[in-house]
Amino acid sequence: MNPSTLARVFPSEEDTAQLREDVMVQLEKFEKYLIEEFYDDYRSGDMSHGTFTRRVAFIMGSMTAAAAAMTMVGCTPDEVPKTGDPMPTPTASAMSGNTTAVPNAKSPLTVPEGTAGLATATVKFDSGGTEISAYLARPEGSQKGPAVLVCHENRGLTPHIQDVARRFAKEGYAALALDLLSREGGTASMDPDAVPGALTKAGAQRHVGDFQAAFEYLNGQEFVDKGRIAMVGFCFGGGITWQAATEIPGLKATSAFYGPAPDLAKVPTIKPAVFGVYAEKDARITASMPQLKDALDATQVKHQLKVYPGVDHAFHNDTSDRYNEAQATAAWNDTLAWFKDNV
C-alpha cells in the first residue's frame, strides 16, 4: 500500500481534526441543534449510547461524519464510532395510528380520541404538487372559529402531538397537526431513530412551505374564521415556528416552545404576535433568548419571551421524563391567553 493510500485509510490526527471542524461548520442549524440536544439527553441518562449514535449517524449520513460530530459536541474517543463501523439499518416503526389513550400521557389536560364534541380526521392537501397528510381536530358543527397550525417535535407526528391538537380543539380551535414526513411515507412508517435525520435532510424551507400550504388549506375551510390562524411548535417544531413567523405574514400569532431562534436579520419581517416559551435549565436554547429579545425589542413586533423556572427542555411533553405538570400547564395557559388576545 503506497503512502497516499495509507493516508486516506488512516488519516493523521491533524487531518481528522480538520475533518471534524469542517463537518460542524457545514451542519445546518437544525442538524447542529438536534445533535447537541441528543448529546445532552445522552449525558443526562435520558438516551442510551446506542440510540444517540444511531440518531447522529442517520443525521450525518456516514459513521465517519457521525464520529466527527459526536467528538465536536463533547464525546470522548471511546464513545464515538469507528470509521469502519457499518451504518445502522432502519427498522420498521411500531407506532400505531390514532388510539383512544395516548401512551404514557401524564397531563390532566390530555384529551382522548373520541371525546364528545370533537371531530377528528386525517386530511390531505397539496403542497408544491405533493400530497401532505395532517391530523385535524376541531369542534363538531359548522360554526366558524379560529384555527391553529401545530408543528411536531423531532419525533414526527406522534400520538402526543395529536393529543395537543385535540386539546386546542377542546378550546374552540380547528387544529391541524402536519406530518412533515408525508413525502417519506409518513412518521408511522419510519424507524424512530431515523426520523430526526429525515427531518433535517428535508430542510427547514420545505417544512415552512408545507405550513404555508396548510395555512391556505385552513383558510379555505368553512369552519375556519378566515384569517384567524395561529401556529404553535415544540422543540424542533418551535424552531420551525420561529422561522414560519418570519415567512408566513398571514399568521396572527405564534407560540414557540423551546425552539432555536430564527435568523435575527429576519426578525423585522415578523408580522404575527410572537410568544416564546423557554426552560430555565435548557442552557443551549435559553442562552440565545437575550439576543432574540434585543432584536424583537428593536422592532414594532408584539412579543413576549418567558422563562419557566426549574424545568428543562421538553418540559411540556407529558409522555417524557422531563414533564413538569405545573410549568407545562402554566405554559399551555399562557399560550391560550396569547392566542385569545391576538387571534
Task: List the defining traits of the structure above.
343 residues, alpha/beta, 12 helices
Question: What does this protein structure show overall?
Answer:
With 343 residues, the chain is α/β, with parallel strands linked by helices. The protein folds into 2 domains: 3-79, no CATH class; 118-342, Alpha/Beta hydrolase fold, catalytic domain (Rossmann fold). It is built from 12 helices and 8 strands. Strand 3, helix 6 and strand 4 (174-178) form a beta-alpha-beta unit. The protein starts with a helix and ends with a helix.
Instruction: Please estimate the helix content.
Output: 25-40%
Rg is: 21 Å
Main beta-sheet annotation = 8 strands, mixed
H-E string:
HHHHHEEEHEHHEHEEHHEH
Architecture (CATH level 2) name of the largest domain? 3-Layer(aba) Sandwich
Low-confidence stretches: 1-11
State the separation between the terminal residues, measured CA to CA: 69 Å
- Per DSSP, the total helix count is 12
Question: CATH top level of the largest domain?
Answer: Alpha Beta
The CATH superfamily name of the largest domain is Alpha/Beta hydrolase fold, catalytic domain
Q: What fold name stands as the CATH topology of the largest domain?
A: Rossmann fold
Strand order of the largest sheet: 1-2-4-3-5-6-7-8
Q: How many domains, in number, for the residues? A: 2
